[in-house]
Task: structure prediction
Amino acid sequence: MNIHEYQAKQLFRHNEIPVPKGQLASSPLEAEFVYRRLKSPVAVVKAQIHAGGRGKAGGVKLVRSPEECFQAAKGMLGTTLVTHQTGPEGKKVHQVYIEAGSEIAKEYYLALLLDRETANIAVMFSTSGGMDIEEVADKTPEKIITVQIDPTLGLKDHLLRSLAFRAQLPEVETQQLMVWVEKLYRMFLKYDFSMLEINPLIVTKKNEMFALDGKMAFDDNALYRHPDIESMRDLKEEDEREIEASKLGLSYIGLDGNIGCMVNGAGLAMATMDIIQYAGGHPANFLDVGGGATEEMVRHAFRIILQDTKVKAIFVNIFGGIMKCDIIANGIVGASKDLKLHVPLVVRLEGTNVNEGKKILRESGLNILTADDMGDGARKVVEAAKK
Ligand code: ADP
Ligand code: MG
Result:
């Protein structure tokens, strides 16, 4: 789960990480009031969406008067912001955050993230932070310094010293950074983050550090421990189909391709996406209907897949273990008729009652292509999607 910048800043404040003064607004008038209350000649109006790259896309504006603040908020609220992180469809701006403008002397990058390869928490730091960090990572990756914290040993000072040394930080900043990382590391454990990023972390002319941006991602499996964090969830920022699917007990994740997938079991679903790629196609989604899915759930699954207008063909790959193949076949036939399926359907069934299942599909009178195995199914569906 991700949260907005203004929420990340609330958490920073609670945990004594300095952030500029600021407040949320949902209308231009409210934004103007916030500006007046801030009593800062320069303020910044920032679109609140779950994506970075706002600065370069017009989602961060400096304002110097109540009127300018009103106009900047008006220009953002209700519009769709397209940044390099949102994808071409962009994200709608429902709220703006108005904060006091900071006098920036330096922009740094700091992130803590769960490194699944090493099972450590990685701390990444760069003195070349700011809006071009992607370019830095791409062209001069040596400017991003990483140290690994082994969670069984905890955070050791020498790690941070070596990080600051490699970044050639002056001593005053080294001291500050060490305190910051200690606090952030504690937050990381306390809230079960999977990622925490501050870009930019600024140093002002008076040598003070502030978090000017904040990105936080939480481990969904640990959310039950943090009702306060879970209440920060903004469903407007999430894929409607994913929310609907999760309510029905299906795990669905939308992707960029055009081949809809319906599979039982997460492992088989991953393998199915791989084999589609291998056959030269691109999956439109990950969808696991679960081990004990019912006919009803199969129908829901079809409906969700078909809501994606990119889908040009569907591949059903089911291993009937707990779930019997004839039940699945009935679900497929029923759903295809109800939903007036208009795209080619390739079905690979295996397992309990497979022959009964295949018979139901054959006798349905529907245009269903059956496959002998996964490879065959993948080739057929990739072919069908091209037509
Ligand atoms: P994004 O990462 O989505 O582009 P940021 O919050 O990082 O959005 O803002 C982009 C840039 O805008 C920052 O790198 C910084 O230069 C400037 N900026 C953001 N907040 C402030 C602020 N409070 N005062 C001054 N400049 C700011
Ligand atoms: Mg940023």
User: Anything to note?
Assistant: Residues 20, 44, 46, 52-55, 60, 99, 101-102, 104, 107, 130-131, 199-200, 212-213 surround adenosine-5'-diphosphate (ligand 1) (CB under 6 Å).
